[in-house]
Amino acid sequence: MDISFTDREADVMQILWEHGPSVVAEVQARLDDPLAYTTVLTVLRTLENKGYAGHTEEGRGHRYFAAIEQQLARKSALRHLTGKLFQGSTELLFTHLVSDQKLSEDQVRRLHALLNEQNHEENS
Predict the structure, then answer these.
(1) Which residues pair with 71 in a beta bridge?
(2) How is domain 7-66 classified at the CATH fold level?
(3) For residues 53 and 66, is the Cβ–Cβ distance under 8 A?
(4) Beta bridge pairs of residue 57
(5) pTM assigned to the model
(6) 57: helix, coil or strand?
(7) CB 79 within 8 A of CB 48
């Protein structure tokens, strides 16, 4: 499944993932950028039309929820990024991430352990 969001859609989805089902006013209040109620409603309806969000009836309004898991969206975004900017090479992406960041010793140890675990799984 190829999942893609605009920046606003990603912001709204992040709120749904972090805070759970929410009415439009709750999403609007949690956004960093001040957006009109109707703009937030339009974004939520767009996400619903794409199949990324859904809603339940609540009184006269709707309570919107994430219809896809955050991890699935992350994987899709990473595949897209890797394909578009790193010629499909996860090694090139990883090399860029590691060389471009100032990683602590603890972060380096965790990455090393993750790579060792991945290598062990492939050889099993």
Answers:
(1) none
(2) Arc Repressor Mutant, subunit A (1.10.10)
(3) yes
(4) 62
(5) 0.80
(6) strand
(7) no
